[in-house]
Amino acid sequence: MGLRPTRRGWALGLAGVTLVLLGVGLGAVDLVRLGTLVVLLAVGAAVVVGLLDPGRGRHRLAVARDARPNPVHAGEQARVDVRITASDPAARVRLAGLRFAEQAATELSGGRPLRARVSRSPQRVTVSYTVEAARRGRWQLGPLVVTRSDPFGVARSSATLGDHAEVVVWPTVVPLPTASDVLVGEPDRVALGARTPSTDDASLRDYREGDDLRRVHWRSSARRGALMVRSDERAGMRPVSVLLDLPARLAALEWTISLAASMAIAMLEGGHPVRLLGGRDGAGTEFLHARSGPTARADLLDSTVDLEAPRSPEEAESQLLAAAHLLETTEAGGEIVLAVLGPLGAGARAALAHVADNAQGWAVVRADGASPAHEREAQHTVNALRRAGWRACAVAPGEDVVACWLRLLGSAR
C-alpha cells in the first residue's frame, strides 16, 4: 500500500534522466529542457496523486458496509453494499476517480475475485456485490482497497478504508416433516387439545420449563415464593434437548451440525422448548421457546456457529459425557432427547443408558463406512442404545437429512 510509480512512470522518469544526461554530454540545451520537462511531469503526477491519497489527511472518506441477510445459511447468497461517503468538498475531490476493490474471506468469495457493480454520485460511491456462504462460521469482509492514478498513468496510490465487517453463517437447515404421531406424547396431546382439560384447577404443581405462563396460579405462587401452575396444564409442550457428538472430519462435522440444527428447528417450530448440548463450550444450555419471542430461532442457530471439531477422541468423549451429565442433573423427566452420535466407547454408552431412565431418547449413529471395524462399532452402539431404551438407527454422514429423520422415526415401530 502507498504511493508508487507505475511501469509507465518508471519508463518516463528513466527516459527523462537519459535525455538530460545525453543533452549535457552533447551540449544540447533543448535535450536537457525536454528531459527536465519529462522528469518534472513524472514527479508532479506523483505529488498530485500523493496529495489526493484518500487514506491520509483530515478529509478522510467514511465507509459503511451492509450485508443482507446476515446471518445467512450455508449454501445461500448474501448481497453486500459498501457505501463510501464524502462529507465535505475536499473529501469529494478525493472520492472522484477512485477505483475500488473489496476483500473477502475465501469461505465467502470461493477464492475468486469479487465482481461488483459501482454506482457513483458527487458525494457517494456504492459498491455492490454478492457472496456465497460456503461454510458455517464467522467470516470477514473488508477492508476496502482504493486505488488512484494520475491521468497519464505515471503514479498510483493504494490505501485501505474502513474496518472489517463480519458475516455470520448458520448451518444448512432442512425442513423436516412433522413427527407429532411418533414424538408427541400424552402430555403434549393435552396441551394441543387432544384431550379435554381437567376441570379441577385447584391441583397445583411447580412450574417447569415450557409451561404456558397463562396457567400460572399467581396467588399460590406469591404465597409459596415459587411459580405454581394448574395441573390440567401439567406438561405444556415436552422440552427437547438435542445432543451433539461432534466428529473430527470436517465434512462429517458440518453434516452432523446441519442434521442437529434441522431437528432442533423442527421441534422449536412445533412448539417445544429446545436446547442444544455438546461441543467444547457446551453449545446452548438454556431452553429456547417460540413463545419467548421472534429471536428464538436465531438464538438457537447462533449457538451452532462456533462449534468446532474435537482435537482428539478423548476430548470428544469428554464433551459427550459432560452433556450427558447435564441431562442427568437437570431433572430431564419426560424430556425428549434427540442425539446425533458417532460410535461410542463403553463409558459414553453407560452414561447415555442412564439418560434413558428419565427421558425419551432418540439417536442417529454415524457409520461412515471407513472400515468394517467402524461399521461394527456403529452398529454395536445402536444395539446398546436400543437395549437401554433408546430408539436408534445407523446413518451415513452426507446422506439426505430428511431420509435420516424418517428412518429414526421409523425405528420406533
Automatic annotation (TrEMBL):
Membrane-spanning residues where? 37-55
Q: Which residues form the DUF58 domain?
A: 204-356
Q: Name one Pfam family in it.
A: DUF58
**UniProt keyword Nucleotide-binding present:** no
Source domain of life is Bacteria
For this UniProt record, the keywords arranged alphabetically read as follows: Membrane, Transmembrane, Transmembrane helix
Alphabetical list of InterPro entries matching this protein? DUF58
Name listed for the protein in its UniProt record = DUF58 domain-containing protein
